[in-house]
Amino acid sequence: MIQLFDIIFSTGFFHSILRVSTPIIFAGLAAVYSERSGVINVSIEGVMLTGALSGVVISALTRSLWISILGTILICVLMALILGLLTLNLEANSIMSGLAINILAQGGTIFILYILTGSKGNSALLNSMQIPNVELPFIKEIPVIGHVLSGQNILTYVAIIVAFVSHVFLFRTATGVAIRSAGENPDALISVGINVKKVRFIALTISGILSSLAGIFLSMGYMNGFTANMTAGRGFIGIAANAMGNQLPLGTLFASLIFGAADSAANALQVLKIPTQFIQMIPYITTILGVFIYSVSTSKRKRREG
Amino acid sequence: MKRNIKLFLLIIAVIMLFSLTSCGSEGKNSGDKTRIALLLSGNLGDMSFLDSAKKGTDEILSKYDDVEVRVIEMGSDATKYETNVLDFSDDGYDIIIGSGWQLQEPFQNIAENYPDTTYILFDASVDYEKSEYSNVYSITYKVNEASYLAGILAAGMSNTEVIGFLGGADGPGINDFLVGYIEGAKSVNKDIKVIVGYIGSFSDSPKAKEMALAQYNQGADIIFTAAGSSGIGTLEAAASQGKYAIGVDSDQALLFEKSNPAISNSIPTSTLKKVDSSLVRAYDLYNEGKLPIGKVENLGLEEDAVSLTDNKFYQDIVPEDIKEKIEVAKQEIIEGKIKVSTAFGISNDDLHSLIESVRP
Q: Residues in domain ABC transporter substrate-binding protein PnrA-like (chain B) (predicted)?
């Protein structure tokens, strides 16, 4: 038991929570934008995976971080727009289209990896670049908190900032209000002469950018290289974080941190005498519990309102 | 509408006709050559297991003139496996080689109907208790022996007396590595502690990196990772912490030599299943009529079917006295003086008490 507290109450543990949560925060925010605009986007996982590979490949070829980030964002936005084309213009089922993109990404990334490197497992042969970690100048000096917050990857800070900016954007700007109305009451938008489809395309574009950052973080921040299927369901956990966070950017941020904490705990607890099967269940039990608590609270609220 | 359906049926019929003819024309008997089919339950380019099997048949091809080899990458669609085995059996191939447990069922279902064909299953075994399978030869690998040597290396090089193990999943296939590793480590240092973790995935490299960092934080200074592609995460964690990691399945130090030398310098060695040499050995024996068909052979250090990689990183990183210890242990295993336990025979309780005995 003492060992347990030693592990949980260490700065290293809290440091790892932010790191583990980052891809989930990005994916969760990507889900917030698309779902707020009324498009169910399950393709986040696949777009992340594509982003992870593109970042590695472009950075290895061009040796420029900026070109690789911009190129990757472009590719991922294109994928998100394909989802828009399928669901908005051609009126295909959005879940089916999303799953199709996921399967395409799963096979496609391995195919491209194989053509470029001859390996189907990882990009070990490519000399790709990494997005650096940074020390925060003043915060670093604060005991305990400084150690937790400072020295994270740049994208980790970006993720947290984006969550706060998204909150302002969705609730305080005209475009944000339009995105929310496109999901809640599209007829109202039409009545004031705004093109609903256009608003949804804007939301999907933002969603694509955020998914690409999640992917870039995995292969260029967290890791320094791509391995096949490295997203391992983080896109879907992001969608769950969005549901648990009540489609609010800050709620999603909070939910993502909870998932991240559960995952970090599972990683750190391997030393203890707990069956591994149980430890591996922790992140998923947390997800189920979270969604359960969320649905109970919403159904209660609905009953009260009804 | 009616015409459309007719047209559709016609197209289907033509397609079926073509696929039939293509089946028939495949591998017509070409003289007296021994015809070998290598059926892979996946695709080439995995940089380990399947590529190694292909290397084995390539070697057989260059060694013998009267051999013909077809390599089939069956992909991950398991429904294709049995059909492929059936096709090649029907075609009268002399030897059909199959990879891994995925081919066990198809071999069990089909082999006995084609007594003239010899089936070779590597890294798995058909269930000889269930039936005779007198034309199936199975190869399994004593990874526990190579892992024993890895354990000696890890415990010998550790300054903290804590070492780590990160497996892909908690099952006998992975635990066979673990059992050998713990026994080898204990043979060098009785008080060695081993942190044991399982990633629960063979592709989630970020998670592996996170778990490896946790193990390093908790005092381990060298980790053995048996987790397929996930293992790359462990290797990166080692490089970022200036610690060591032992790779698996392919020479992982050479893999990163050009792209990321920092990682290579953290990998003193990797354990290998030498599928290639075991297949060449099998064909050599087959050619002499000595292959024990109808049995499973468990191949280890003695047959050169498993090993630790010996490259320049091994030479540079590992101290001489540890290299010597490894060499001595290797000889003693080959001579039978050291018996390494395996996760395949032992009960769950025995396994857990072994892990408990080294828990930090």
A: 33-334
CA dist A213 and A23 (Å) reads 8
| B3/A contact by beta carbon, under 8 A | no
How far is it, in rounded angstroms, from Cα A1 to Cα B125?
43
Distance CA A207, CA A80 (A): 7
- Identical fold for domains B31-141+273-307 and B143-269+309-357, yes or no, is yes
DSSP E strand stretches across B4-87 = 34-40, 67-73
| Angle, vertex CA B342, rays to CA B226 and CA B247, nearest 5 | 20
Residue-wise pLDDT for A81-135, tens only, equals 999 999 999 999 999 999 999 999 999 999 999 899 888 888 888 989 999 999 8
Q: What is the set of domains in chain A, with CATH numbers?
A: 2-127+152-301 (1.10.3470)
* CA-based nearest distance A70→chain B, Å: 23
Judged by CB atoms closer than 8 Å, whether chains meet at B259 and A114 is answered as no
| Rounded Cα distance, A268 and A270, in Å | 6
Q: What is the pLDDT of residue B26?
A: 42
The shortest C-alpha distance from B220 to chain A (Å) reads 11
How far is the alpha carbon of A16 from chain B, nearest alpha carbon, in Å?
8
- To probe the interface with B, which of A21, A48, A111, A122 has the most B CB atoms within 10 Å? A122
Q: Which phi and psi (to 5°) does residue B260 adopt?
A: -155, 75
Structure-model confidence comparison of residues A276 and A165, the more confident one: A165
Q: What tokens does B12 get? A: 């289907």
DSSP state, residue B242: T
For chain B, the structural domain boundaries read 31-141+273-307, 143-269+309-357
Residues B337-357 pLDDT 10s? 999 999 887 888 888 899 989
- Please name the fold of domain B31-141+273-307: Rossmann fold (3.40.50)
> Given a cut of 60, is residue A297 above it in pLDDT?
yes
Is A47 an 8 Å CB contact of chain B? no
Question: What does the pLDDT look like over A15-55, one tens digit per residue?
Answer: 899 999 999 999 999 999 999 999 999 999 999 999 999 99
Nearest to A229 among B46, B170, B203 (CB): B203
Nearest CA in chain A to B204: A230
The confidence score (pLDDT) of residue A265 equals 87
pLDDT tens across A122-143, in order?
888 898 999 999 988 888 888 8
CB B325 within 8 A of CB B156: yes
Q: What is the pLDDT of residue A274?
A: 77
In chain A, the residue whose alpha carbon lies closest to the alpha carbon of B359 is: A271
Cβ atoms of B232 and B205 within 8 Å: the answer is yes
- Whether residue A2 has pLDDT greater than 70: no
Closest residue in A to B45 (Cα) is: A119
In CATH terms, the superfamily for domain B143-269+309-357 is Response regulator (3.40.50.2300)
Closest Cβ–Cβ partner in B170, B260, B359 for A277: B170
- Residues of A with CB below 8 A from B207's CB? 232, 263, 267
**Which DSSP letter does residue B296 get?**
E
Could A270 and B214 be called an inter-chain contact, meaning their C-beta atoms sit closer than 8 Å? yes
Spans of chain B below 70 pLDDT: 1-4, 7-31
Nearest CA distance, B353 vs chain A (angstrom): 11
